[in-house]
Write a structure and sequence with these properties.
This is Pilus assembly protein CpaE. The structure is a single chain. It is built from 3 helices and 9 strands, in the order αββββββαβββα. The chain has 135 residues and is α+β, with helices and mostly antiparallel strands. The strands form 3 sheets. The protein has a 3-stranded antiparallel sheet with strand order 2-1-6, with helices on one face. A 3-stranded antiparallel sheet has the order 3-4-5, with no helix packed on it. A hairpin with a 4-residue loop joins strand 1 and strand 2.
Length: 135
Amino acid sequence: MIGVQVAQELRDAGLVWKPGPGDRFAIPDRDLDEDVFVLSNMTIEVYSLPEGRVIGFNGTTEWALDDVELDEALWLPREDQLRELLGGTLRALRRTDRGWDVDITLLGEDSTFTALTPEEAYAAALLHLLAAATT
């Protein structure tokens, strides 16, 4: 799983979250940085209210958190979601003695991104794509 810092870099680079069941997220800056939440149709759902979209915590008795605004939550994309976001640019994922390599091709240029986990390597490649989309 990618960490909060990498997820923040992805969001800052322009990655937009379209929440769906099974999505993981954190709530930084509320002393909940280390906690990971999962959207579920039973306990944690996204609601559209007149003031905007919120994430509602249904039946949560452990702490006083009824809902948070969607922009306060930080999406922690899973490996499959990161891979899907790379789309047709993705060429390969390989295990190496350094960790994992992700190869992409963007506009005819091949690039490789290395990290300790597949998720981190996919995230590095996605950050490269997002940066290219804004230039």
